[in-house]
Specification:
9 helices, alpha/beta
Length: about 270
C-alpha cells in the first residue's frame, strides 16, 4: 500500500510536524511523506517502509535502527529485519539515523562520528529518532511501538525507551554498548563526555515495557558483559527483561548471528509477542 498526498498537503504536514518551513538545505529530504522521509525534530530522516498484507490489522509499528557504520556505506543491512516485521503482520520501518543513508536516500544532518570521535551519542541525535518514531506511530494509529537497534542503534533505542517513556512498548537491544563509559574503557578509548548512555535511563523505563537484549558470545566490540550488566540492573528494578546470547557469534549481523535459532526466536518474540 502506498500513501500518496498532493504536494501542498505534504508540505503542510512537514511544516506542522517540524514546527515551521523546511530549511533550504533539506530540499533533498522533501516531501516528508511518512513513507520515505519523516520529520524528526530539526531533521528529516530517511526511512524504508514495509507494510503487511493487511495494514488495518497491524497493532505495532516496528522501527529498526542501524549501527554506526564506521566503515561508511548505506544502512541497508537492517532492511531484512524491518521486512520480517511486515511478514509477521506488523508495520516495519528501517530508520536511517541522523546523517546516514539507505535505499538511495539520506537523512539530514551529519552523523556525530564524522564530527568528532569525542562527540557521539548525543541527545539531539537520539531525540530526532524519537520524534520521528512518535510521528510515525501517530500516523499509523497503532497502540504499540517496537524498536530494534543494533550496536549504535541499540544505544539509541536504550536511551529513547527511558528518555521518552511510553513511546515504546517493546525493545530489542542487539550488541548493545549499554554502559558507554565502561564500553569505552574496555576498548581502551577516550571517554565521550556528552554521550547519553542506556544504563542511565533504566530507572525511567515504564513498568510493563518489554526489554530484550541479544549479543554474540564472541562479540569483541560491544562485549557480552555490557548486556549482562544491563539485564541484571533492569531486573533489579522489576522490569520485564531477558538476555539472549548467540553462541559463537560476533558483533555483526552476519549469518552466524541472524541464521541462528536464538536470533530468530528473539526477533519473533519482540515483534509478534510470541
Amino acid at each position: 500500500m502506498t500513501h500518496w498526498k498532493p504536494m501542498a498537503a505534504t508540505m503542510l504536514v512537514f511544516a506542522i510536524l517540524c514546527g515551521g518551513a523546511a530549511r533550504a538545505d533539506d530540499e533533498d529530504c522533501q516531501p516528508a511523506d511518512l513513507e520515505h522521509y519523516v520529520p524528526g525534530g530539526d531533521e528529516c530522516l530517511a526511512i524504508k517502509t514495509y507494510l503487511p498484507a493487511d495494514v488495518g490489522s497491524a497493532k505495532r509499528v516496528v522501527f529498526v535502527l542501524h549501527g554506526d557504520l564506521s566503515r561508511g556505506g548505506p544502512a541497508d543491512y537492517i532492511f531484512p529485519l524491518a521486512e520480517r516485521a511486515a511478514e509477521l503482520g506488523q508495520i516495519g520501518i528501517a530508520l536511517m539515523r541522523v546523517g546516514y543513508s539507505g535505499d538511495g536516500r539520506r537523512s539530514t544532518g551529519t552523523p556525530s562520528r564524522q564530527n568528532s570521535r569525542n562527540d557521539m551519542y548525543t541527545d539531539d541525535e537520539f531525540d530526532a529518532a524519537a520524534e520521528a518514531a512518535k510521528a510515525l506511530k501517530a500516523h499509523y494509529g497503532v497502540p504499540e511501538a517496537v524498536m530494534i537497534g543494533h550496536s549504535g542503534g541499540a544505544a539509541t533505542t536504550g536511551v529513547i525507551v527511558g528518555r521518552h517513556p511510553g513511546l515504546l512498548q517493546r525493545v530489542l537491544l542487539i550488541a548493545c554498548p549499554c554502559d558507554i563509559d565502561k564500553w569505552r574503557q574496555l576498548r581502551g578509548r577516550n571517554p565521550w563526555p556528552r554521550a547519553e548512555s542506556p544504563d542511565d535511563y533504566i530507572e525511567e523505563i515504564l513498568p510493563g515495557t518489554v526489554v530484550r537484549l541479544l549479543v554474540g558470545s564472541r562479540d569483541n566490540n560491544t562485549y557480552p558483559d555490557l548486556s549482562e550488566d544491563y539485564e541484571e540492573d533492569a531486573r533489579s528494578r522489576g522490569l520485564d527483561v531477558r538476555l539472549y546470547k548467540v553462541d559463537g557469534a560476533g558483533h555483526n549481523l552476519n549469518e552466524s548471528m541472524v541464521g541462528s535459532d536464538v536470533f530468530k526466536e528473539a526477533l519473533t518474540e519482540i515483534i509478534a509477542g510470541e
